[in-house]
Design brief:
Layout: H1 3-33, H2 36-42, E1 43-51, E2 63-66, H3 68-81, E3 82-86, E4 91-94, E5 100-106, E6 108-111, E7 117-118, E8 121-129, E9 132-139, H4 142-146, H5 154-165
Parallel strand pairs: 1-9
Antiparallel strand pairs: 1-2, 3-6, 4-5, 5-8, 6-7, 8-9
Helix pairs in contact: 1-2
Length: about 170
């Protein structure tokens, strides 16, 4: 490989790494500002969102959303459940190969039905391919979320049942 080709390979790796981080950061920003179109345009058609930590002592995930329609329905459903949803001081990192971005931070929101403050700790992994999110794994305290007593949507029930049937 010539020096010029080495430089081109290095440049394309940098671009891939930056775009994975940018896509994930933009996605979180779209959630914070309630931009449904931005959310939709950030996701691959076959995206999967998993909540690996359950509120039950089973060791199974809390739920798995499969496909863009389910992930968008869940994510945009947050706008009805919470106001002021944001992650004020996230720490972002990325994988060495530039295909994954990680958010670590504390969320902040107000529960719409009760007016109570909701603050959970998150580590979220975003897998990005061709500029779109293909997988989201959100590690948070599921018991805290469930304790809010918010009625789950049909899509959330389906995501939980998907785990229970597996």
């Amino acid at each position: 490989m010539t020096a010029s080709k080495d430089q081109d390979v290095g440049r394309s790796r940098t671009i891939a790494r930056e775009s994975a981080l940018k896509v994930a950061r933009d996605y979180v920003r779209f959630i914070e500002i309630g931009d449904r179109e931005g959310i939709v345009n950030s996701l691959a058609d076959d995206v999967v969102q998993i909540f690996p930590i359950s509120s039950e002592a089973t060791g199974d995930p809390q739920g798995i959303f499969s496909g863009k329609e389910e992930v968008v329905d869940y994510t945009c459903g947050l706008f009805r459940k919470f106001t002021g949803l944001r992650w004020p001081d996230p720490e972002w990192t990325e994988s060495a190969d530039g295909t994954r971005a990680f958010l670590e931070g504390r969320g902040d929101a107000t529960v719409t039905q009760s007016g109570e403050r909701y603050s959970n700790v998150y580590i979220t992994r975003f897998d990005v391919k061709d500029g779109l999110i293909v997988r989201i794994a959100e590690y948070a305290n599921a018991t805290l979320y469930v304790s809010l007593g918010i009625e789950p949507s049909p899509t959330e029930i389906k995501a939980v049942e998907r785990v229970q049937k597996a």
